[in-house]
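ok posting inputs for the S-adenosylmethionine job
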Amino acid sequence: MDVSPGGLLVERRDAEGAGKGLFATQSCPRSSTLFTIPAGAMINLRTLSPLYPAAGKLLLTANQMITLHLTLHMPREDGVSHDPGWGPYISTLPQDFESHPVTWAVRNHGGFASPTEEDLLSLLPPTILSALSGRVRLFMADWHAICQYTAAAPNIVSASSRTDLTSSDFRLENHNLLEDCLWAWLNVNTRCIYYQLDSATSAPENMTLCPILDFANHRPNNTHIVAVQPTSLFPPTPGSLGKGRHGLGGDYIFMSSSETPVHKDEELFLRYGSHSNRMLLVEYGFGNLWDEGECRDGKFGGEVDVQDMVEKLFAARGAVGRALKEVLETEGYWGDWTMHSQPVPAHPSYRLISALRLSQLAVDESEGEAFERALERWRAVLWGQEEQVSAENEQAWRDALLLMCERIAETATSGMAAVRERLPRERASGAGWTGWMLGNIERLWREEYEVAEAVASSVRGGVEF
Ligand SMILES: C[S@@+](CC[C@H](N)C(=O)[O-])C[C@H]1O[C@@H](n2cnc3c(N)ncnc32)[C@H](O)[C@@H]1O
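and the output
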């Protein structure tokens, strides 16, 4: 790898409120090559597959394989990983994920969360809690798969650079090793980037840990760093992945943006994606910063998830609600219902409007001619053939939306108050990350509050969505 001053234009430094970050060591023009990571320096399915072959019918996913490798070569007390392959890189990974909500949720699931972790969980909005439950399920499934795999291939564990591990340690109920595996899993989930190894672009194999780049922090607007996806002269053959024959996946080149030049000593950000703050907190353990009033005024793109509330609307209608839910599922409109502060005017998503229209359909029976006729009308609106189901239905769903906004604002007001009560004490103590995390949680509640208020104001103002 070229680490000469001309080949490596970045370095790792402390970044306030974000651990480490990537900084420019010199100024450079637009579209400069900042650094190049050789294919063999990255940890992914291609570089690891030779070390982790199938054990009978058991084959690890990319996520599980990288997690297992990091667990087997986790740095110990001296902070150094003795992995002969990627030891120096693994030694640069964060030492712990104490501030990550998934850590608290996994511990809580196992019954060993600390009082602080329980307290923080109790302060989170319900939408975050349900997203966290999903992450816990995924982690536990991966932990289960890793335990099964190591039981079937105990020699894999003998290759660990850790002297404290034997294959019998990989037991579901071994909390200490589960914690090591969680450290590894969170490294994978917070640091892996897209890297094409399979020709199907959405394949879960298309991910990698990538030294240096993984010190880049996120910002929501323009990215400083552009990843240039390596291509190969040799296209992959069908089913080649996992068998050591990869057409894709060469050296990874990272360039500066074509829009702005880079200034010496500036922090270089990578846009992780257009993620909501809810998703950022659950996946990465932080949220974007924004100032009070910015969501309300449409200057910041706030989002509220209303899954639980809409589900309740359908549940409250009994048999009719169940039949309507089936219709939404068949049409692919069940779930993923949100409200947004941007673009102005603040508005419900199209999916949410469609679900609300259906939830307010004026039908008393869950089948029959009247039911089918009403559905036909709803479908006509969905397909853009009609403007509305009826004037009554239009009024009913807007009323239901307004009521939802009022409830969200009410709950968010109590949520904010509970966090604000704790904030001064935590900030005054000045120690650790809890004050910083409470700030993140307070902003999440405030986002719910401001978006709900803004959407309510759109509804009251008669905005046509
Ligand atoms: C790919 S790593 C970036 C490097 C990381 N800051 C470190 O110290 O190793 C992603 C993690 O960095 C942190 N991070 C990234 N962007 C951030 C931001 N804008 N604000 C706060 N933390 C951020 C989060 O902890 C996230 O999970």
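notes: The longest strand covers residues 10-14. The CA atoms of residues 196 and 202 lie 9 Å apart.
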